[in-house]
Design a protein that fits this description.
It is a single chain. The chain is globular, with a radius of gyration of 16 Å. It is of the alpha/beta class. It has nine helices and six strands; from the N terminus they run E-H-E-H-E-H-H-E-H-E-H-H-H-H-E. A six-stranded mixed β-sheet has the order 5-4-1-2-3-6, with helices on both faces. 43% of the residues lie in helices and 13% in strands. It has one domain: HUPs (Rossmann fold, 3-Layer(aba) Sandwich).
């Protein structure tokens, strides 16, 4: 019998990523959820919504126990602040997603996962334009799973309502607290790598963030 595949799920406090998790559970994937907290730039609101959404999915949509019952929380706020200087700020959201992917890669190596799952949807925000998704994916050594990529926002909202996660996740998004007014929509990989090299390199940044790892249980 084939071994059940495992992916690292990058889960925010928003509407999209819990829907992506639910879709992959239905496809038979084991889910190891990871939340990148932007503390101390923001509070724990997004983390708490992530916990509540995943706990709801476990209780109502995960009868076979495919979602890991612990959420891995990594603090990234101080690292993201490094990309607010004038040279890097326009690329802030791409750097953010690249950092998340690098962190997910490290955890994937530890737990034996074979893919990274995100709730990304083509064109919804600046980091998800066609011109930026490739640069984001370049930071991952693992296969990227994007089950919502071709959906429009209303379709995702409708699916979240059916799942029961929409009300939990609705509210203001906090991920743009440090973002620029006019973010780039077509990333330049050489510029991205240069910005990251000035801060020690993406791998080192991710490894330093991983030192903050803590667990939150999703089952009471």
């Amino acid at each position: 019998m084939a071994e059940t595949p495992t992916c690292i799920a990058l889960v925010s406090g928003g509407i999209d990523s819990p829907v992506a998790v639910a879709r992959m559970v239905r496809s038979g994937w084991c889910i190891v959820p990871v939340h990148c907290s932007q503390e101390p730039i923001t509070g724990r609101e997004a983390e708490d919504k992530t916990v509540a959404s995943l706990a709801h999915l476990i209780q109502h949509h995960d009868s076979t126990g495919l979602i890991d019952q612990n959420l891995r929380v990594i603090t990234v706020g101080e690292t993201l602040a490094k990309f607010t200087d004038p040279a890097a700020h326009r690329d802030y959201f791409v750097h953010m997603k690249r950092l998340f992917n690098s962190i997910a890669n490290l955890i994937a190596n530890e737990v034996g996962a074979t893919a990274i799952l995100t709730g990304e949807n083509l064109g919804q925000v600046s980091s998800q334009t066609l011109g930026n998704l490739g640069a984001v994916e370049e930071a991952s050594h693992f296969r990227m799973l994007r089950p919502l990529l071709g959906l429009d926002k209303q379709e995702i909202i409708d699916e979240a309502r059916v799942l029961g996660t929409y009300e939990i996740a609705s509210g203001p998004e906090l991920c743009d607290a440090l973002g620029p007014d006019r973010p780039t929509t077509v990333a330049d990989l050489n510029r991205l790598r240069g910005n990251e090299a000035l801060q020690g390199g993406l791998d080192e940044l991710a490894e330093n963030c991983l030192k903050s790892l803590r667990m939150r249980t999703l089952v009471v």
